[in-house]
Amino acid sequence: MLELRGISRSFGDRLVLDDVSFTVGQGRLTGFVGGNGAGKTTTMRIILGVLAPHAGTVTVDGAPVDGAQRARFGYMPEERGLYPKMQLVEHLTYLARLHGFDRPGATQRAEALVERLGLSARAKDPVESLSLGNQQRAQVAAALVHDPDVLVLDEPFSGLDPMAVEVVQGVLAERAAQGVPVLFSSHQLDVVERLCDDLVIIGGGRVRAAGTREDLRRQFGTARHEIVAEGDMGWLRDVPQVRVDELAGGSAVFEAPEDVAQQVLTSALARGPVRAFTPLRPTLAEIFRDVVTDEPELEEVAR
Amino acid sequence: MSARPSAPTPPSLGRATLLVAEREITSQVRTKSFLVSTAVLLVGVLAAIILSSVFSGRTGDDVPVAVVSSVAGQVPTTEGLEVRDVADRAAALEAVRAGDVDAAVVPGDGPLGVEVVAMSSAPQVLLGALTVEPDVELLDPAAAEGGVRYIVTFAFGLVFMMSAIGFGSTIAQNTVTEKQTRTVELLLSAVPARALLAGKILGNSVLALGQTAAIAAVSVLALVVTGQDGLLTMLGTPLVWFVVFFAIGFVLLAAVYAASASLVSRVEDTGVVLQPAMWLTMLPYFLVVFFNDNPTVMTVMSYVPFSAPVGMPVRLFLGEAAWWEPLLSLAVLAASCLVVIAIAARIYERSVLRMGGRVRVREVLAGSGAD
Q1: Longest Cα pair distance anywhere in chain A, in angstroms?
Q2: What pLDDT, in 10s, does the model give residues B286-321?
Q3: How far is the C-alpha of B182 from the C-alpha of B93, rounded, in Å?
Q4: What pLDDT shows up at residue B58?
Q5: Residue A255 three-state SS
Q6: Is the dihedral of CA B305, B309, B310, B316 positive or negative?
Q7: Nearest C-alpha of chain A: how many angstroms from B7?
């Protein structure tokens, strides 16, 4: 289990991280969401020891992280870093060897990973000749090639087509299933929503919300229901404690406490047949907007 | 949850260094530019030596030689010699001094009973023609070294400068590229910064030394082929010393290049930070070119670590250094090399992860480690 406790960091006068604490559980895919400049990359670089925190600790299974342990982390940096002129498989083999695998073991791992990520046809090509999407996959491979104990990925899905997103998702889920804590940041909220078990939302250097996806939904989502009835639903506007969001003839979307919603259903049934009554679960994008509304520059992020 | 394979043992510092060095070497050896430039360099050296031997009078006109009548029988009428009879030794010397002939054969001691007299150097064709190598008396030995002295010192200086700048720049380029592309973050998550620096220096030093040794070998070969054994005898020992000095001297410069380059984050900014390193590299070249006849400057130069790899072999070639001097100079060089590497490692470790603007050396050295 990867745990951050009270991490703070400033650059000059600017406080970039302010008392950031969260955990990434064993085998949990944890999405790390926040706007540009919210502090995601800084947090990740601190986890990897690339940057030192001004306060706070990073621990794995309760023990402070040291160099040897960090060598067992898999990291995908924000800017893509691979030697442009090196052949893909050779590069991955080199990275695995740096982590202590012998040459045959390293080669085997590199080749297996290249195949898993659908890059077999490019295995012998220099990294710089790969398309952007393929370079991205190569970067994911670079983070995984030494079977890391902890995975920290900065924007692993950016620039990937839907098929590639699918593949990378699958690979990450596999690693999580093996018990690896996985932390990844993303701007693609739909991907995060589909993939992650847990969620950490950061804004302005502070953790705004953290927990399992379902917890956050319950915590931040407003209870909304959709009802579709035979007759006109116009009467709904007059029910106390109900706020109608949409209304079109027999169908309506409204916000109300659970018991009031049930009363609405009973009343509707009394007036005639009801075709549908569905609780609407908030999307991640909605939660995100809710949680970080005081962050003006975040709008572009929640696209 | 499926079982995860057990983690491998992380490589030791030495092993990590070797891995990095191996990558530096293999990735460079495979580039076309490296192969082409090495080939051009070697062919160039070969051509220069052969051409200079050709143009120094081995072809074309016969070599005019004055021969005193009394020993005329000792000189065979070999092809390439234009024998002119003179009355006695005095007349022969006169002809040599006047430049009418390149050399004179006069009565003397030795098994042949003759002696060869020449101004600066005796023509090989003449020495070869005599069945037994005669004693050679040079009338103006100081001038003897003039041309050769200049060319050899120039060659030492040039080879060192070209090689050091070439491979030094490669180190700098790689260091900044790694930093710019953040490859270094990936690498440092696996191995310590010291291993990365050491591997870079080791790998490029092996390449630079290999190239320089190849140049030395080709020079020896060319001298043998063109029959310039005399020059080879003079050059042999200094050449070996040059390779030894080069090995350590280059490591010193490589550390400076790597540390300098780690201060910036973009390839475009390397020029400025590399300036001091560039000057250190070019200094010995300019010193030998301008001061090769100034013993004081040459002596100082042969002990200053950055110029010793050129200065000491040149002095050895000129016969100005005692036997112990290269050893002392080498010790000084090796000691300063260790100090510079320690400082370079400190700079590198602390600046290689600092992105953005240029990192100040003083700040890095004074800093408390993790920023």
Answers
A1: 75
A2: 888 888 778 888 899 999 988 999 889 888 888 888
A3: 74
A4: 47
A5: strand
A6: positive
A7: 8
Output the CA–CA distances (angstroms, integers) from residue A122 to A12, A115, B263, in the order listed.
Answer: 44, 10, 35
Nearest to B286 by CA among B311, B254, B257: B311
Tens-digit pLDDT profile for residues B6-54: 677 888 889 999 999 999 999 889 888 889 988 998 998 888 888 877 7
User: Which H/E stretch holds residue B136?
Assistant: strand B135-138
Residue listed under structure tokens 């297996």:
A112
Tell me how far apart the alpha carbons of residues A152 and A77 are, in angstroms, rounded to a whole number: 9
Band of the pLDDT at B238, cuts 50, 70, 90? Answer: confident
Cα-based distances in Å from A290 to A183, A206, A282, A283: 22, 15, 10, 11
Do B371 and A52 make contact, defined as CB atoms within 8 angstroms? yes
Tell whether ipTM is more than 0.90: no
Which two structure tokens, joined as six digits, stand for A207? 């953790």
- Residue A124 C-alpha, separation from nearest chain B C-alpha, in angstroms: 14
The pLDDT assigned to B102 comes to: 79
Chain A 49-78, CB below 8 Å of chain B: which residues? 49-52, 67-68, 70-73, 75, 77-78
Task: List the one residue out of B178, B371, B345, B187 whose CA is nearest residue B265.
Answer: B178
Three-state SS at A8: strand
User: Which of A50, A101, A147 shows the shortest C-beta gap to B353?
Assistant: A50
Q: CA A37 to CA A14: how far, in whole Å? A: 11
B-chain CB neighbours of A178 within 8 Å are 1-4
Tell me which of A239-253, B224-238, B273-287 is least confident: B224-238
Quote the pLDDT of residue A189: 82
User: Which residues from A are below 8 Å from B27, CB to CB?
Assistant: 83, 85-86
For B167, other C-beta atoms within 10 Å of its C-beta total: 26
Best of A98, A113, A135 to mutate (most B CBs within 10 Å, chain B): A98
SS3 B103: strand
At A115, the amino acid letter reads E
CA angle B96, B100, B102 (to 5 degrees): 55
For residue B371, the model assigns a pLDDT of: 45
Helices (H), A196-244: 213-220
CB B336 within 8 A of CB B168: no
Confidence of residue B140 (pLDDT cuts 50, 70, 90): low
Task: Give, for B326, the enclosing helix (H) or strand (E).
Answer: helix B324-351
